[in-house]
Amino acid sequence: MPSNLKNDRLLKTIQRQPVDMTPVWMMRQAGRYLPEYRATREKAGDFVTLCQTPELACEVTLQPLERYPLDAAILFSDILTIPDAMGLGLKLIESVGPKFDKPITSVSDIKALPMPDPEDELAYVMDAVRLIHRELNGEVPLIGFAGSPWTLATYMIEGGSSKDFGKVKKMLYQEPESLHLLLDHVANAVGLYLNAQIHAGVQLVMIFDTWGGVLSTPAYHDFSLSYMKQILDNLEREHEGNRIPVILFTKGAGLWLEDIAETGCDVVGLDWCQNIGKVRNKIGNKVALQGNMDPAVLKAGPDAIRNEVKSILENYGDGPGHIFNLGHGITPDIDPEHAGIFIDAVHELSKPYHKNNQ
């Protein structure tokens, strides 16, 4: 536990130690719902430039913390930095999403992929981490992250976002050895990338498996979970005397939460389709839980937001081990005031659940 943190509520919660209230942060908390973020993005000119300019990435990472009493900062970056550094040519097209100029179409494409050096091709991310770490000055922990190998592979093979994942699933069933070759390569790259973030100053890391839930149960274990475990096995879980916790989040993973908890991760992230109390009964003795309010609740008024927060807190029950978050990222159409109501409600309404644990 870093002793210099002014607010260590999140890290204590991960260790399931007593806290005064439930910590809260939001996936995509630095994003388009904030007018100050939109102003900085306009200054950058485009999303990729924003990600690749450490001073601007630092600025937008800190913006939500200037506005809200959040319990963590998360590095502003994108999960597709690694495929871009492998030479696939990332473009972020407004209203369309990410596109790659050179998607993977054959095993020879996979064999030709380089292994990016985090302090060379991805130096802009590490420079951003160092700058954010310095600017935070121990206020709250800084979360680093990467996409899961399976999720990154979907973009690399499909060439961008996909509705049916036809190309990557065709490779999965027709050329599984080719897909395993790609996933192994990407898992090694993600491990190097996260270790470099740890060295640069993040105090915990999260792996986003956005598209793991589109797989069958056997395919999820073989093509997603096993590669996240490979990353975990190669991560430096201690740095400068402090333990580095890991959050694993697979969207749509309701069937596999017990398997995720067995990987050696510290926290399992939940989407909004789960009852957090029931999940706690299953795996809460092994890991902390993160989640899990439907981001769409933030479109509603203050009473509805507070009621949903209250319901999730009631479901989880007394004691530590719960990081409050949304079940996926906050969406661009949310009123920033509603996000503030949500964060304040978590802190206020959670206090009674921690009274007997101090």
Number of strands: 11
**Low-confidence parts lasting 5 or more residues at pLDDT below 50?**
none
> What structural class is derived from the secondary structure elements?
alpha/beta
Strands side by side in the biggest sheet: 1-4-5-8-9-10-11
Mean pLDDT: 96
Percentage of β-strand residues? 5-15%
In CATH terms, what is the architecture?
Alpha-Beta Barrel
Calculate Rg over CA atoms: 19 Å
The tally of structural domains comes to 1
User: What is the CA-CA span between the terminal residues?
Assistant: 18 Å
Q: Which shape, going by the Cα principal axes?
A: globular
User: What string, H for helix and E for strand, traces the elements in order?
Assistant: HHHHEHEEHHEHHHEHEEEHEHEHEH
* Proportion in helices: 40-55%
Number of helices: 15
The biggest beta sheet reads: 7 strands, parallel
Please report the first level of CATH classification, the CATH class.
Alpha Beta
